[in-house]
Amino acid sequence: MAETFELEIVTPDRKFFNDQVEMVILRTPEGEMGIMQGHIPMVVAVDIGPIRIKKDGEWREAVISEGFMEIKQEKTVILADTAEWPEEIDINRARAARERAQERLQSKLSYIEYVRSQTALSRALARLKVSGHNKRGFQ
Ligand code: ATP
User: Which end of the chain is more exposed for a tag (fewer CB within 10 A), N or C?
Assistant: First the structure.
């Protein structure tokens, strides 16, 4: 039996996940990060992207947007702006969001507008990727 730890993922809307898991892998500004039981306690920023959770030997994937993760001895908590399982993702909505962001990025934008459009694009591409509708990856 692999050692487990408690993983909780919370968004402003809901408690997305709360269970004992063997491992979680997600994106941080420094790159991909994997957490297992006994990881050094720390707080890190979380990036938009897929999150992979290993439970009972099986991997499950979801998509989250920006947030923070607190790693403690027995429990890891992720606070993210949004989180969805692949089957929850509305493909047409994500495609429309991608197109809107790409169009905006063609025009002259302030720095704030540029950053907003880039993050909106990243969210849309991450959703499409995790739902299996964008094989090209995302930024
Ligand atoms: P949109 O422009 O379509 O609203 P967005 O990236 O701005 O996309 P968010 O602000 O990240 O949307 O999310 C707002 C809420 O809508 C969250 O609860 C999120 O889980 C949900 N959501 C956003 N896009 C999708 C999608 N394509 N499928 C399912 N849920 C979505």
Answer: N
Residues 100 and 120 in one domain: yes
129 lines ligand 1 (CB under 6 A): no
pLDDT tens digits, residue range 92-121? 999 999 999 999 999 999 999 999 999 999
The first and second tokens of residue 126, run together, are 């991450």
Minimum CA distance residue for ligand 1 atom 30: 89
Residues 65 and 96 in one domain: no
Q: What is the 56 CA–ligand 1 centroid distance (Å)?
A: 30
The secondary structure of residue 137, as a DSSP letter, is: -
pTM value is 0.93
Mark whether 10 and 64 lie in a shared domain: yes
